[in-house]
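User: Could you go from structure to sequence for me? I need the amino acid at each position, not a summary. C-alpha coordinates:
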Protein backbone atom coordinates (compact mmCIF):
# COMPACT_ATOMS: atom_id res chain seq x y z
CA UNK A 1 0.00 0.00 0.00
CA UNK A 2 1.11 3.53 -0.79
CA UNK A 3 0.89 5.48 2.49
CA UNK A 4 0.15 8.62 0.48
CA UNK A 5 -3.38 7.20 0.07
CA UNK A 6 -4.06 7.94 3.75
CA UNK A 7 -5.78 11.35 3.89
CA UNK A 8 -3.93 14.21 5.61
CA UNK A 9 -0.78 12.21 6.33
CA UNK A 10 2.35 14.36 6.33
CA UNK A 11 6.16 14.06 6.36
CA UNK A 12 6.25 11.07 4.00
CA UNK A 13 9.36 12.49 2.34
CA UNK A 14 11.31 12.21 5.63
CA UNK A 15 11.92 8.48 5.14
CA UNK A 16 10.94 8.00 8.80
CA UNK A 17 8.74 5.27 10.21
CA UNK A 18 5.11 6.34 10.62
CA UNK A 19 3.36 6.49 13.98
CA UNK A 20 -0.09 5.46 15.18
CA UNK A 21 -0.47 6.84 18.70
CA UNK A 22 -3.01 8.11 21.18
CA UNK A 23 -4.97 6.99 24.22
CA UNK A 24 -6.36 3.49 24.52
CA UNK A 25 -9.90 4.83 24.80
CA UNK A 26 -11.52 8.21 24.27
CA UNK A 27 -12.34 9.20 27.86
CA UNK A 28 -13.48 12.70 26.98
CA UNK A 29 -12.78 15.57 24.60
CA UNK A 30 -10.31 17.47 26.77
CA UNK A 31 -7.97 14.52 27.38
CA UNK A 32 -8.07 13.46 23.74
CA UNK A 33 -7.34 16.97 22.48
CA UNK A 34 -4.47 17.43 24.92
CA UNK A 35 -2.85 14.19 23.85
CA UNK A 36 -3.35 14.89 20.13
CA UNK A 37 -1.93 18.40 20.43
CA UNK A 38 1.22 17.20 22.17
CA UNK A 39 1.84 14.27 19.82
CA UNK A 40 1.28 16.43 16.74
CA UNK A 41 3.80 18.95 18.06
CA UNK A 42 6.40 16.22 18.65
CA UNK A 43 5.88 14.44 15.34
CA UNK A 44 6.00 17.70 13.37
CA UNK A 45 9.27 18.55 15.10
CA UNK A 46 10.74 15.15 14.23
CA UNK A 47 9.11 14.87 10.77
CA UNK A 48 7.27 11.66 11.62
CA UNK A 49 4.12 10.79 9.63
CA UNK A 50 1.40 10.63 12.28
CA UNK A 51 -2.04 9.03 12.71
CA UNK A 52 -4.05 9.78 15.87
CA UNK A 53 -5.37 6.61 17.52
CA UNK A 54 -8.30 6.32 19.90
CA UNK A 55 -10.90 3.62 20.60
CA UNK A 56 -14.45 4.94 20.44
CA UNK A 57 -15.55 1.96 22.52
CA UNK A 58 -13.90 -0.99 24.25
CA UNK A 59 -15.61 -4.31 23.62
CA UNK A 60 -12.87 -6.74 24.69
CA UNK A 61 -12.84 -6.30 28.47
CA UNK A 62 -12.05 -8.82 31.19
CA UNK A 63 -14.89 -7.78 33.52
CA UNK A 64 -18.42 -6.58 32.97
CA UNK A 65 -17.78 -3.51 35.15
CA UNK A 66 -14.78 -2.37 33.08
CA UNK A 67 -14.94 0.98 31.27
CA UNK A 68 -16.30 0.58 27.74
CA UNK A 69 -16.65 4.17 26.54
CA UNK A 70 -18.42 7.52 26.78
CA UNK A 71 -20.92 6.74 24.03
CA UNK A 72 -20.19 5.70 20.47
CA UNK A 73 -21.34 8.80 18.60
CA UNK A 74 -19.86 11.17 21.17
CA UNK A 75 -16.44 9.49 20.98
CA UNK A 76 -16.47 9.28 17.18
CA UNK A 77 -17.32 12.99 16.92
CA UNK A 78 -14.29 13.72 19.10
CA UNK A 79 -12.14 11.63 16.75
CA UNK A 80 -13.49 13.56 13.77
CA UNK A 81 -12.88 16.89 15.52
CA UNK A 82 -9.27 15.94 16.24
CA UNK A 83 -8.73 15.01 12.60
CA UNK A 84 -10.10 18.37 11.46
CA UNK A 85 -8.48 20.57 14.10
CA UNK A 86 -4.97 19.13 13.79
CA UNK A 87 -5.24 18.07 10.13
CA UNK A 88 -4.13 14.52 10.85
CA UNK A 89 -5.58 11.13 9.89
CA UNK A 90 -7.33 9.10 12.57
CA UNK A 91 -7.76 5.41 13.36
CA UNK A 92 -10.19 3.55 15.59
CA UNK A 93 -10.94 -0.14 16.14
CA UNK A 94 -14.24 -1.77 15.29
CA UNK A 95 -15.80 -4.89 16.79
CA UNK A 96 -18.84 -5.82 14.74
CA UNK A 97 -20.07 -5.44 11.19
CA UNK A 98 -22.35 -2.49 11.99
CA UNK A 99 -19.41 -0.56 13.46
CA UNK A 100 -17.65 -0.44 10.08
CA UNK A 101 -20.11 1.82 8.28
CA UNK A 102 -20.70 4.01 11.34
CA UNK A 103 -17.03 4.57 12.20
CA UNK A 104 -16.05 5.10 8.55
CA UNK A 105 -18.05 8.35 8.59
CA UNK A 106 -15.72 9.80 11.24
CA UNK A 107 -12.22 8.29 10.85
CA UNK A 108 -9.71 7.54 8.09
CA UNK A 109 -8.50 4.07 9.10
CA UNK A 110 -10.52 1.16 10.49
CA UNK A 111 -8.62 -1.18 12.76
CA UNK A 112 -9.51 -4.84 13.26
CA UNK A 113 -8.59 -6.02 16.78
CA UNK A 114 -6.25 -8.98 17.10
CA UNK A 115 -8.89 -11.25 18.64
CA UNK A 116 -11.19 -10.58 15.67
CA UNK A 117 -8.84 -10.57 12.68
CA UNK A 118 -10.13 -13.95 11.47
CA UNK A 119 -13.76 -12.78 11.52
CA UNK A 120 -14.38 -12.70 7.78
CA UNK A 121 -17.61 -10.68 7.90
CA UNK A 122 -15.93 -7.97 9.98
CA UNK A 123 -12.83 -7.74 7.79
CA UNK A 124 -14.92 -7.62 4.62
CA UNK A 125 -17.27 -4.98 6.05
CA UNK A 126 -14.27 -2.78 6.90
CA UNK A 127 -12.76 -3.31 3.46
CA UNK A 128 -15.99 -2.41 1.64
CA UNK A 129 -16.09 1.03 3.26
CA UNK A 130 -13.12 1.94 1.08
CA UNK A 131 -11.15 3.10 4.11
CA UNK A 132 -7.63 1.90 4.88
CA UNK A 133 -7.85 -1.24 7.02
CA UNK A 134 -5.30 -1.95 9.77
CA UNK A 135 -5.26 -5.66 10.64
CA UNK A 136 -3.81 -6.48 14.04
CA UNK A 137 -2.15 -9.90 14.00
CA UNK A 138 -3.90 -12.35 16.25
CA UNK A 139 -1.87 -13.38 19.29
CA UNK A 140 -2.63 -16.95 18.23
CA UNK A 141 -1.56 -16.56 14.58
CA UNK A 142 1.69 -17.03 12.72
CA UNK A 143 3.10 -14.22 10.62
CA UNK A 144 2.49 -16.31 7.50
CA UNK A 145 -1.21 -16.69 8.32
CA UNK A 146 -1.73 -12.93 8.04
CA UNK A 147 -1.55 -13.18 4.25
CA UNK A 148 -5.07 -14.65 4.32
CA UNK A 149 -6.44 -11.71 6.32
CA UNK A 150 -4.79 -9.29 3.89
CA UNK A 151 -6.23 -11.18 0.93
CA UNK A 152 -9.76 -10.88 2.37
CA UNK A 153 -9.39 -7.10 2.22
CA UNK A 154 -7.90 -7.16 -1.27
CA UNK A 155 -10.50 -9.62 -2.58
CA UNK A 156 -13.16 -7.19 -1.35
CA UNK A 157 -11.83 -4.61 -3.79
CA UNK A 158 -9.65 -2.66 -1.35
CA UNK A 159 -5.85 -2.59 -1.59
CA UNK A 160 -5.42 -0.12 1.27
CA UNK A 161 -4.32 -2.49 4.01
CA UNK A 162 -1.80 -2.45 6.85
CA UNK A 163 -0.66 -5.12 9.32
CA UNK A 164 0.18 -4.50 12.98
CA UNK A 165 2.06 -7.07 15.06
CA UNK A 166 1.10 -6.95 18.74
CA UNK A 167 3.03 -9.98 19.95
CA UNK A 168 2.29 -13.67 20.23
CA UNK A 169 0.97 -15.34 23.35
CA UNK A 170 3.26 -17.81 25.10
CA UNK A 171 1.53 -19.27 28.13
CA UNK A 172 -1.46 -17.64 29.76
CA UNK A 173 0.01 -14.31 30.86
CA UNK A 174 2.86 -13.36 28.58
CA UNK A 175 3.34 -11.82 25.14
CA UNK A 176 6.49 -12.22 23.04
CA UNK A 177 7.44 -10.38 19.85
CA UNK A 178 8.93 -12.71 17.24
CA UNK A 179 10.90 -10.29 15.09
CA UNK A 180 11.35 -12.97 12.42
CA UNK A 181 7.72 -12.32 11.50
CA UNK A 182 8.23 -8.67 10.56
CA UNK A 183 9.90 -9.24 7.15
CA UNK A 184 7.44 -12.07 6.48
CA UNK A 185 4.42 -9.80 6.95
CA UNK A 186 6.07 -6.98 5.01
CA UNK A 187 5.70 -9.19 1.92
CA UNK A 188 1.92 -8.78 2.28
CA UNK A 189 1.51 -5.18 3.47
CA UNK A 190 3.31 -2.34 5.31
CA UNK A 191 3.92 -3.68 8.80
CA UNK A 192 3.63 -1.83 12.11
CA UNK A 193 4.90 -2.93 15.53
CA UNK A 194 2.62 -2.32 18.50
CA UNK A 195 5.12 -1.55 21.26
CA UNK A 196 2.62 -1.23 24.10
CA UNK A 197 0.17 -4.12 23.66
CA UNK A 198 3.14 -6.41 22.99
CA UNK A 199 4.04 -5.86 26.63
CA UNK A 200 0.63 -6.70 28.05
CA UNK A 201 0.21 -9.34 30.72
CA UNK A 202 -3.33 -10.60 30.11
CA UNK A 203 -5.47 -12.99 32.14
CA UNK A 204 -4.59 -11.58 35.55
CA UNK A 205 -6.59 -12.99 38.45
CA UNK A 206 -7.81 -9.47 39.27
CA UNK A 207 -9.50 -9.19 35.88
CA UNK A 208 -7.34 -6.15 35.04
CA UNK A 209 -4.68 -6.62 32.37
CA UNK A 210 -1.11 -6.00 33.52
CA UNK A 211 1.93 -4.87 31.57
CA UNK A 212 5.64 -4.03 31.49
CA UNK A 213 5.88 -0.44 30.24
CA UNK A 214 9.51 -0.23 31.35
CA UNK A 215 10.34 -2.39 28.31
CA UNK A 216 8.59 -0.19 25.73
CA UNK A 217 11.84 1.41 24.59
CA UNK A 218 13.54 -2.00 24.31
CA UNK A 219 10.82 -3.37 22.04
CA UNK A 220 10.66 -0.14 20.02
CA UNK A 221 14.41 0.03 19.40
CA UNK A 222 14.47 -3.58 18.24
CA UNK A 223 11.54 -2.98 15.91
CA UNK A 224 13.15 0.02 14.24
CA UNK A 225 16.43 -1.89 13.90
CA UNK A 226 14.60 -4.75 12.18
CA UNK A 227 13.02 -2.27 9.78
CA UNK A 228 9.33 -2.00 10.68
CA UNK A 229 7.38 0.47 8.58
CA UNK A 230 5.52 1.94 11.52
CA UNK A 231 5.16 2.06 15.29
CA UNK A 232 1.89 1.80 17.21
CA UNK A 233 1.68 2.91 20.82
CA UNK A 234 -0.84 4.02 23.38
CA UNK A 235 -0.04 7.01 25.53
CA UNK A 236 -1.70 9.03 28.30
CA UNK A 237 -0.83 11.98 30.51
CA UNK A 238 -1.30 9.80 33.58
CA UNK A 239 -1.45 6.07 32.74
CA UNK A 240 -2.23 5.19 36.37
CA UNK A 241 -5.59 6.92 36.07
CA UNK A 242 -6.37 5.76 32.52
CA UNK A 243 -9.68 3.94 32.25
CA UNK A 244 -8.30 1.25 29.92
CA UNK A 245 -4.88 -0.42 29.47
CA UNK A 246 -3.08 1.96 31.82
CA UNK A 247 -0.68 -0.78 32.91
CA UNK A 248 1.09 -0.94 29.56
CA UNK A 249 0.73 2.62 28.22
CA UNK A 250 3.61 5.06 27.75
CA UNK A 251 3.47 8.21 29.82
CA UNK A 252 3.12 11.11 27.39
CA UNK A 253 6.00 13.01 29.01
CA UNK A 254 8.36 10.25 27.82
CA UNK A 255 7.22 10.23 24.19
CA UNK A 256 9.52 12.86 22.69
CA UNK A 257 12.64 11.28 24.14
CA UNK A 258 11.63 7.85 22.86
CA UNK A 259 10.77 9.07 19.36
CA UNK A 260 13.98 11.11 19.14
CA UNK A 261 15.98 7.95 19.82
CA UNK A 262 13.95 5.93 17.31
CA UNK A 263 14.44 8.56 14.60
CA UNK A 264 18.20 8.40 15.20
CA UNK A 265 18.17 4.61 14.89
CA UNK A 266 16.06 4.83 11.72
CA UNK A 267 18.51 7.32 10.21
CA UNK A 268 21.33 4.85 10.80
CA UNK A 269 19.34 1.92 9.40
CA UNK A 270 18.49 3.92 6.26
CA UNK A 271 22.20 4.02 5.42
CA UNK A 272 22.30 0.28 4.85
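Assistant: Here is the amino acid at each position, in order:
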Amino acid sequence: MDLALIPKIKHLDSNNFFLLAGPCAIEGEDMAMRIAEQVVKITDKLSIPYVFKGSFKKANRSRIDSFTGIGDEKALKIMSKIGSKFDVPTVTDIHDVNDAKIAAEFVDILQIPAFLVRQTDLVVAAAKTGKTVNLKKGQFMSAEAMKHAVKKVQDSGNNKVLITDRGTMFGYQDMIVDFRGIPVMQKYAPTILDITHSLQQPNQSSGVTGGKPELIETIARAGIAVGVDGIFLETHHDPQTAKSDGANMLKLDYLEDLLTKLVAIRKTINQF
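One structural detail worth keeping in mind: The helical segments are 29-46, 72-86, 97-104, 120-128, 146-155, 181-186, 216-226, 255-269.
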